[in-house]
Amino acid sequence: MHPNTANVAARLRELGATGEVRELPAAAPTAVAAAALLGCEVGAIANSLIFAADGEPLLVLTSGAHRVDTAKVAALIGAAKVKRADPDFVRAATGHPIGGVAPIGHPRPVRTLVDKWLAEHEVVWAAAGHPHTIFPTSYDELVRITGGTPAEVE
């Protein structure tokens, strides 16, 4: 098991999460790829997107069926500017590569917004620290384990 994934699995256990980390037969760097491998709707994939909000990391867990409206998110959190982070910023903030960013297991807490649309799905799938790993959860559990704020981000 990749060290990032082992860390995420340990954090899931510590937080009392119900899902087990699964290794996928191929990398799933996008919501479409993950949904195809899992046989679920793309909207049930929780994309973990890191943004720079006035230079600070912001994690937006959004439905794979949505695009994040950065102007709307900036207004929600009171930031002057929210922009997609580059790969180095993402890895520094989370310890994970783009395509495998988990909602937990980061070196330091990251402010998190959780797309309310994910509540439409009984099972939500999130990355587990590596593009080949994923875990099942629920919207409520995702909000709880991340300490995230429910939000409309599209």
Characterization of this structure:
- The chain has 154 residues and is α/β, with parallel strands linked by helices.
- It is 29% helix and 25% strand.
- The protein has 5 helices and 8 strands, in the order αβαββαβαβββαβ.
- It has helices at 3-14, 31-38, 70-77, 87-94, 139-146; strands spanning 22-23, 45-53, 56-63, 82-84, 111-115, 124-127, 133-137, 149-151.
- Strands 1, 2, 3, 4, 5, 6, 7 and 8 form an 8-stranded mixed beta sheet that branches.
- The longest helix is centred in the N-terminal third of the chain and has 12 residues, at 3-14.
- It is globular, with a radius of gyration of 14 Å.
- The termini are far apart.
- 43% of the residues are buried.
- InterPro entries: YbaK/aa-tRNA-synt-asso_dom_sf, YbaK/aa-tRNA-synth-assoc-dom.
Report the sheet-strand fraction.
25-35%
* Mean of residue pLDDT values: 96
Q: What are the secondary-structure elements, in order, as H or E? A: HEHEEHEHEEEHE
Number of helices: 5
Largest sheet: 8 strands, mixed
- Spans of at least 5 consecutive residues whose pLDDT stays below 50 are none
What gyration radius follows from the Cα positions, in whole Å?
A: 14 Å
State the helicity in percent bands: 25-40%
How would you name the oligomeric state of the polypeptide chains in this document?
Answer: single chain
Q: Determine the structural class based on helices, strands and strand pairing.
A: alpha/beta
Using the alpha-carbon principal axes, give the shape.
globular
Total beta-strand segments: 8
Ends distance: 34 Å
